[in-house]
Amino acid sequence: MERRLDALLAECVSSAQRDRQRPLVLVVDDAPINIEVLARVLDGYEVIFACSGAEALSLAAAQGPDLILLDVMMPGLDGFDVCRILKADPQLEKIPVIFITAMTQDVDQARGLDVGAIDYITKPIRQRLVRARVRNHLELKLARDLLERRAVVDGLTGVANRRRFDEFLLQEWLRAGRNQLPCSLILLDIDMFKTYNDCYGHLAGDDCLRKVARALAGALHRPADLVARYGGEEFACVLPETDAAGASLVAKAIEDSIHALNIPHERSSVSHCLTVSQGVASCRPLPAHSGSSLLVYAADRLLYAAKEAGRDRIVAADMDVVAIG
Predict the structure, then answer these.
(1) Is residue 35 within 8 Å of 28, Cβ to Cβ?
(2) pLDDT of residue 104
(3) pLDDT band at residue 293 using 50, 70 and 90 as cut-offs
(4) Measured between alpha carbons, how far is 266 from 272 in angstroms, rounded to an integer?
(5) Is the overall model pTM greater than 0.90, yes or no?
(6) pLDDT at residue 192 above 70?
């Protein structure tokens, strides 16, 4: 068990290092001398500082630190207020907070834990204790982050999985309805993939799926867009704030990127190389409706039409404004 945990933590650290060279720690204290002490203690980490509660909240939102060391007694927003606000924000609530304070009463520490802190470090600062607790809590956070990423990522292709697709599409559908914005969905299928597997083998088929996933991710240039493996050889692209014209441009970019892969498919009746068929549905949902399944249904029917028309093509439709009873 310990060996498995060590391996998991090593993978967590490796993943974090790919995303950011060193873990980022936000130190919040209104006394510069305390910040200087903690900066020396945290040598080896990337450290940013705030001297007030308001500044801490701004930095946390902008930088997304991996851990916050937070003084309790500050003018204006104190540490309890800052922690409470952090934990009420869905974008910031998972950042671990360690209180650093001279308050040693059990009632004070219980109050801090009640508002969402994960630990307490009392002043005066003991360097070895601070280093050990920071290291331990960062390792736990990185492990949790890795497990969360695994839960929403397709293990074979590395893009989002079906669970993440369902969550993201519903989220963007509701947001589009509230803000009266367009939303588009592309469903695509690798043409004659079963024949490809039969011809080249399942290992080659898996490699083909990975290449297609990378091509899709490369064709979508906005961070707000999502590529997901929908199932088997089907993929989906959710395009928030994208109308029918924009979605068709993305679909064409996808088609071009798949052709550029030039993956041989000698048993295809469509082309000598691998191709995909795409169904592209766009609409502007009305507020207070949660029927994102209608967009999926429309894209699926359009994908079917693309296959029926000979494959290796795009069939798109703009449903304009959609209301769902």
Answers:
(1) no
(2) 66
(3) confident
(4) 5
(5) no
(6) yes
